[in-house]
Fold this sequence. Notes:
By secondary structure, the chain is an alpha/beta fold. Helix content is about 35%, strand content about 25%.
Amino acid sequence: MQSGFWRKGRYKSMFRIVILGTGFIGSSHAKAIRNIDGVKLAAIVEMDEARGRKAAQEAGCTWYPSFEQMVANESPDLVIVALPTFLHEKYVIRAAQAKINVLCEKPVTLSLDSFDRMAQACRLNGVYFMVAQAVRWWPEFVQVKNMLHEDKIGRLRMIYETRLAQHPNWSSWHTDPKKSGGGLYDLHIHDIDYLYSLFGMPKSVYAVGFKSESGCWNHVASNLKWKNGLKAVCEASMDMKGGHPFTIELRVCGDKGTLDYRFVAGFNIKDGNQAANLMYYPEDGEPARMDVPQPDPFEEEVRAYVSAIRRKTEAPIPVCESRNVLEIVSGIEQSLETGKIITF
C-alpha cells in the first residue's frame, strides 16, 4: 500500500493518512500532519457524528462513522490508531487485513499475546506496524540522548524520571484496568520506552506502587538495573490530587556532570502556562541552560515513519523494540503484584 515513491528528490504522489479517533492524541496527529510536505490527512473515523464532523471540518478532510465505510471509499497509505487502548488490537488487525500500514498509539495493548496477534497480522499482510512513542522525539529527551552519545556526562551513575498527572476527566474507561492498564501502562510506559531506547533491555526491575479501588496501578515507582551496573528510578502517577500540574522530570547523573530537565504544564500536558527547562551542570565549568529547538514531537514521529514506509526501510521504532518495552512493563506489573524482583 505504499502510494508514493522517490523521483528526483520528490515523491510522485501524495501520501494519504487516516486517523481513527478524535481525542487528544488523534487531534495532535491531525495538527502535525498539516505541516508535513507530501502528506495529506484524507479522513477521520469517529463513531460520534458531532465530534467526527467537527474534527473533519477543522482538518479539511472527510468524516466516516466506521472503519468499514472508510475502507470502502478511501485507499490510505497509513492508518493512525488513536482510539482507547482496549480497541487497539481490533483495529490494528482490521487495518492490516485491509493492507494498510499502521501507526498505533501507546499503550499499544496490555498483554504480549495481544501484541503478538497484532504484529503477526501486520507481518502476514505485508504492512508496516509501529507503536507511537512520541517521547523519542521530545526535543529535550532527544538533546539528552545526543549529549550521552557525545560523552558529555561521562560514566553514568543514576537516572531518574518522573511523569505525574491528575486522573483523566474526559472518559471513564481509564478507571478500568482491563481497558487502560492505569498509570502503569498509560504513563509509565513513556519513560520505560525512553530508557530502553538508550540502554536496551534491563537485567531486572523491582516496583512499588498504589492500586486504585478499581484495580489500576495508578502510582508506580520502578527500580531498573542493567548488566553494566547502570541504575534508574522511574516514577509515574495518573492520580495526583489537589490540582497538581502535569509534570515531567529527567535527571541524568554521571562522573562528568549532570543533566536536569523539568517540565510543568496544567491539568494536561498541553494546558496552562507550560514551562520547560533543561540545565547542564558540567563537572568543570558553569551551569548552563540548554537552548533546545522545539519541533513538534508528533510531527517528527509521523515524518520519520512516513519516510521509512516510502523508502521501504526499517521503521524508526522496530516491532521487536516495542515488544521488549511491553515485556518490561509487564514485568513491572508482576513485581507490583508479587513484591518480587523480576529478571529478564
